[in-house]
Input
Amino acid sequence: MLTVSMTVNGRKVSREIEGRTLLVEFLREHLGLTGTHVGCDTSQCGACVVHVDGASAKACTLLAAQAEGAEVTTIEGLAGNGELHPVQAAFKEHHGLQCGFCTPGMVMSAADLLKRNPDPSETAVREWLEGNLCRCTGYHNIVKAIRAAARALAG
Amino acid sequence: MFDFAYHRPTSLEEAERLLSGASDGALVAGGMTLIPALKQRLASPSDVIDLAGVAGLSGISQAGGAIAVGALTPHALVASDAVVMARIPALAALAAKIGDPQVRNRGTLGGSIANNDPAADYPAAVLGLGATVTTNRREIAADDFFTGMFETALEDGEIVTAVSFPVPEKAGYAKFPNPVSRYAVVGVLVSRGPAGTRVAVTGAGPCVFRSTELEQALAGSFTAAAVDTVTVAAEGLNSDIHAGAEYRAHLVGVMAKRAVTACG
Output
């Protein structure tokens, strides 16, 4: 067992865990933050994407211990002051989800993209989503939502 | 995944000590290969030694006619670094096509080459640009580093700290990616510069290799037409569910031409 400490959605947390505890297990089972999903558990699907020190990462392919001291943001921490983040609002507006399982990862991945590229082309969005799978195959509206979010963020 | 003791050393000396003291120690950098292997129980080390706490292993610097990339530099940083993009754009482009964005945010150069996956991209860059691998003990020329499938010249307790890439006059990389994993079914890096004319092929064989036939053809004329004069032999290349050896041999030629064209 080891003690791991990090900041999750602005809150400092510290827990005793096994070395093998994955970040996604830490978030879901130790902190009760079940918005981060486990889809494939093999680094493919991206349902578990969170931000670690500002960069998107697959929480199923990261030991919680590797996030020691990090700032972690999950889907629960994206909205501020009771208002949806522009990416969340755009997914709602443009029906960027069907079953919703992939949505937390899609939204977190998209938010990282828009920080790096505030005005991505459709191709750039589709390339960026390489690591996020939607089994409803609702990509068209997801792409539309992300480009709309880019416009909303640009004001 | 079996449990293990997790360590986060703050110096290379401490990391080396932990590694030599463990009954079966494994180093982790980004963990993009190790963690999936742990989950599948393909690896079950007694101790996992995380290099993330060791200062000075990440970053990109210029020295003379070379660019040094720290072992823990993530792919995303290499892909977007202004110096790499200006001086070795082929290296930035190669890094930009590894896996997916989340893999590129975590995966590292040192981890990739120490693992030496036969279908990884970075071994082609290190070998194709004639780079030098620096470890905690010595410098290793790229030609001596990759010794076989998942095998390198690294000794027990030896840790990659940086890779120095000589700036080429020209370099290009092209790969035919597996559509799911983005690993190279075949990837070819061609370059001309201080390390001579070099052609490194990944994905095609059990280990990255230089194609002497293609190098000779390109040394005479660094053009896509020169590639056409060479017939790449299928002997010794991989056959698996993704592609047969003959198809891979064909792809080596096609990717070599695209790589030469990408040099501009």
